[in-house]
Amino acid sequence: MKEKLLNLGTLTQMRAQLLSAMLERHGIESIMVHANKIEGAVGGVDVLVREEDFLEASGILDDFKSAFGTKKQMAVEYMRLARRILVPVDYSLHAENAAFYALNIAAAMKSDIMLLNVYLDPNLNPFSHLETFTFAANLEQITQEVEEQTEKWLKAMAQKLKDKIKEKGIKGVNVFYDLAKDNIVSGILEYTREYKPGLVVMGPRGNKLEGLWTFGSITAKVIEKLNVPIIAVPKGFDAITRPAPKRIVYATGFDETDFWSLSRLATFAHPFDAQIYCLHVSETIEKQEEANMRKMRKFIAENLGLANIECGLLECLDLQLCLEDFVKEKEIDIVAMTTHHRNLFTQLYRPSQTRKMLFHTDVPLLVFHAGPYVK
């Protein structure tokens, strides 16, 4: 790993998770090492940050210690905020399916869910002068009808989730809804900046024959531009009957950002006690790739301390086909990736290939952004 990491502090597992959540709220990524040790065990959990973030992170640690001592609820609230889940929805069954998938995740993480519908402002639609004049007379009424109809649907969708929460006896999960008037992609991005969720869940419904304005294309654009982890739930996945994720494959390209992504993936997988497979697929396995995998295994063993993770190399001419075969063989519940743009895995992370993955895999796709975190 090229970047130097510094140990911010050694805490119990619960406090390390809270501190990591607070750091993330301030735009600072962290890694929790030995996070699988028993709560309160000697040595505890180390919270590592980049050297360039250490000074700012130390100030946050001081605030955290004070908050945890005299204002424990404040620290707990930081963690709840970091675990908020945003679910952009339209009127489709695919979006409803994604909302139920988000509920499965929220039930394990004790997260709040925000259902968001972004609808196009009629003022943004292009019209001729005559059409604009004719349309403007009823514009206010049309806008009001759109808002009322959208809010009614959102309320009904939220109630479906609340009914499921009551049916299953789920604790610690709240469901909210909101609507925004904007271009769909920019509206989702803007709302994410304000709401600051820890995860975005979307239900792509498009295919290559439906053109650029499908929800699949929108999901790919959001993945490309958003720094928050995103789960794309494909239309072939039944979120209501399928259990919480138990097997996750992380497709590694041996980029330095893999270490950060694996740390975040481990945190995501922890509530589900999920098995993680760290897999590198290449047309020809070179000695350097074998060395990189040894380095990856060493990092996982020494830093993450995970027992339920396996690493391996897979030689194959068709990278995507091999990955899909692996998913079927191991009965994978989630495919996790990072938006790399370097190395042999580039073709799996290009926006066009991301769209292809969204349309062909029948398990959810979890994407971590590989670019610099924008504060």
Q: How many structural domains can be distinguished in the coordinates?
A: 3
What is the share of helical residues? 40-55%
Largest sheet: 10 strands, mixed
Sheet-strand content, in percent, reads 15-25%
Give the N-terminus to C-terminus distance in angstroms.
Answer: 23 Å
- Low-confidence residue ranges: 35-42, 126-133, 207-215, 341-351
Shape: globular
Relevant CATH superfamily of the largest domain: HUPs
Rg from C-alpha positions? 22 Å
Subunit arrangement of the protein = single chain
In CATH, the architecture of the largest domain is 3-Layer(aba) Sandwich
User: What is the CATH class of the largest domain?
Assistant: Alpha Beta
Number of strands: 13
Mean pLDDT across the residues is: 77
Secondary-structure element pattern, one letter each: EHEEHHEHEHHEHEHEEHEHEHEHHE
Alpha-beta content class:
alpha/beta
SS summary, helix count = 13
Walk me through the topology.
Layout: E1 5-11, H1 13-25, E2 30-33, E3 45-50, H2 54-70, H3 72-82, E4 85-88, H4 93-109, E5 113-119, H5 129-136, H6 139-168, E6 175-181, H7 184-195, E7 199-202, H8 215-225, E8 230-232, E9 247-251, H9 257-269, E10 275-282, H10 287-304, E11 309-315, H11 319-330, E12 334-338, H12 346-349, H13 351-360, E13 365-368
Parallel strand pairs: 4-5, 4-7, 5-6, 7-8, 9-10, 9-12, 10-11, 12-13
Antiparallel strand pairs: 1-3, 2-3, 8-13
Helix pairs in contact: 1-3, 2-3, 7-8, 8-13, 9-10
